[in-house]
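chain below, 63 aa
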Amino acid sequence: MAYKSMYKNEIARAAGVSRAVFRVWLKADKQALEAMGITPRQQLLPLVAVRYLCEKYVIDVSQ
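prediction:
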């Protein structure tokens, strides 16, 4: 699967969850995301973060 940078709301939509639920997921992965250089307020997530979240939560973002 080819990943690309995506906005948080796009990933939440692909996962079929609300933005609030997705924020809970991100909070659970806060340390891993911070290690990738992702800040909590950052809306556009880089490829490495998208890949991490999609693999962890089994999200299919290909459309």
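Residues 6-57 form one domain. The chain has one domain: 6-57.
thats it, cya
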